[in-house]
Amino acid sequence: MLKEQIQNLLEPLLENDTYFVVELQVKALKTRTNITILLDSDEGIKIEECAQISRKLANEIEARELIQTAYNLEVSSPGIDQPLTLLRQYHKNVGRKLKVELTAGGEHLGELLEVQEAGILLQEEPQKKLKKGEVLEPILIPFTHIDKAKVQISFK
């Protein structure tokens, strides 16, 4: 119930869908409540934006006296090690290199070309050197087959 109340307080602070919630966790411990919120936007989110939303949300929690004990509120962006979980995150990362782990085992590594309703179109990196004139066709991976997809950082 507290999670839904915090979600409701957070929604108006997301500036008409400029920002979106990737994850919201509320854990009630013996002496305090920990609230962790991961936010993102289509252009990325800066630490100053997270801090501003955090202050506004804390003010709302205090004004409504939602939490009677001590609490920690952490608002941040998902780290690079966080897997993609929302369709909007896939759209944001078109053109980037992904590592896609499959539910049936195995993985694919390649450039995210397109996001479709049912899955993603990935241009895989060749596992071996291609013969002259040989072309590696993009593959469609249904979302139902994706266990985890992470953006791969290139330091080239």
Descriptive overview:
The protein has helices at residues 2-10, 47-64, 87-92; strands spanning 19-28, 32-41, 70-76, 97-102, 107-115, 119-124, 139-142, 146-151. The chain is of the alpha+beta class and 156 residues long. A 5-stranded antiparallel β-sheet has the order 7-6-5-4-8. The chain has a 3-stranded mixed β-sheet with strand order 1-2-3. The longest helix is centred in the middle third of the chain and has 18 residues, at 47-64. The N and C termini lie far apart (47 Å). 13% of the residues are buried.
How would you concisely characterize the structure shown here?
The protein has 156 residues and is an alpha+beta fold. The chain has helices at 2-10, 47-64, 87-92, and strands at residues 19-28, 32-41, 70-76, 97-102, 107-115, 119-124, 139-142, 146-151.
Features:
3 helices; Alpha-Beta Plaits; 156 residues; three-stranded mixed beta sheet; 2 domains; 21% helix; alpha+beta
Rounded to an integer, what's the Rg over CA atoms? Answer: 20 Å
CATH architecture identity of the largest domain: 2-Layer Sandwich
- The fraction of residues assigned to DSSP E strands is 35-45%
Report how far the terminal alpha carbons are from each other.
Answer: 47 Å
According to CATH, the fold-level topology of the largest domain is Alpha-Beta Plaits
Biggest sheet descriptor: 5 strands, antiparallel
Number of strands: 8
**The named CATH superfamily of the largest domain:** Cation efflux protein, cytoplasmic domain
Q: Work out the helicity level.
A: 10-25%
**How many domains, as an integer?**
2
